[in-house]
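Extended Data, panel c. Modelled sequence:
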Amino acid sequence: MANKGFSSDLTLVLEPTQLGVVTAHKGALWLEIHTAGVACHGSTPEKGHSAIYAMRHVLEVNRG
Protein backbone atom coordinates (compact mmCIF):
# COMPACT_ATOMS: atom_id res chain seq x y z
CA MET A 1 0.00 0.00 0.00
CA ALA A 2 2.85 2.37 0.76
CA ASN A 3 4.16 1.86 -2.78
CA LYS A 4 0.78 3.06 -4.10
CA GLY A 5 0.84 6.30 -2.11
CA PHE A 6 -1.11 5.27 0.98
CA SER A 7 0.18 6.76 4.20
CA SER A 8 -1.03 6.95 7.78
CA ASP A 9 0.07 8.32 11.10
CA LEU A 10 -0.64 5.02 12.83
CA THR A 11 -1.24 1.45 11.72
CA LEU A 12 -2.63 -1.27 13.97
CA VAL A 13 -2.25 -4.94 13.10
CA LEU A 14 -4.86 -6.74 15.15
CA GLU A 15 -4.72 -10.26 13.71
CA PRO A 16 -1.83 -12.70 13.81
CA THR A 17 -0.35 -13.56 10.41
CA GLN A 18 2.80 -15.40 11.53
CA LEU A 19 4.63 -12.41 10.03
CA GLY A 20 3.32 -13.30 6.57
CA VAL A 21 2.42 -10.67 4.01
CA VAL A 22 -1.32 -10.11 3.71
CA THR A 23 -2.35 -8.69 0.35
CA ALA A 24 -6.09 -8.39 0.96
CA HIS A 25 -8.27 -8.07 4.00
CA LYS A 26 -11.65 -6.75 5.04
CA GLY A 27 -11.38 -3.33 6.56
CA ALA A 28 -13.05 0.01 6.87
CA LEU A 29 -13.63 2.80 4.41
CA TRP A 30 -14.38 6.28 5.69
CA LEU A 31 -16.17 8.59 3.28
CA GLU A 32 -17.29 12.16 3.49
CA ILE A 33 -20.48 12.64 1.52
CA HIS A 34 -22.24 15.93 1.00
CA THR A 35 -25.79 16.44 -0.18
CA ALA A 36 -27.27 19.79 -1.03
CA GLY A 37 -30.67 21.23 -0.34
CA VAL A 38 -32.68 24.38 -0.78
CA ALA A 39 -34.27 25.91 2.30
CA CYS A 40 -37.88 27.04 2.14
CA HIS A 41 -40.75 27.95 4.41
CA GLY A 42 -42.81 25.08 5.85
CA SER A 43 -45.93 26.43 4.12
CA THR A 44 -44.31 26.09 0.66
CA PRO A 45 -42.29 22.87 0.71
CA GLU A 46 -42.53 22.57 -3.08
CA LYS A 47 -40.11 25.52 -3.34
CA GLY A 48 -37.36 23.67 -1.49
CA HIS A 49 -35.32 20.51 -1.65
CA SER A 50 -34.45 18.51 1.46
CA ALA A 51 -30.77 17.62 1.86
CA ILE A 52 -31.84 15.11 4.51
CA TYR A 53 -34.02 13.24 2.01
CA ALA A 54 -31.14 13.26 -0.49
CA MET A 55 -28.85 11.68 2.12
CA ARG A 56 -31.49 9.05 2.83
CA HIS A 57 -31.11 7.81 -0.74
CA VAL A 58 -27.34 7.55 -0.31
CA LEU A 59 -27.72 5.54 2.90
CA GLU A 60 -30.28 3.14 1.40
CA VAL A 61 -28.08 2.07 -1.54
CA ASN A 62 -26.81 -1.52 -1.15
CA ARG A 63 -28.19 -1.81 2.35
CA GLY A 64 -27.83 -5.18 4.02
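The CA atoms of residues 1 and 21 lie 12 Å apart. This feature is highlighted in the accompanying rendering.
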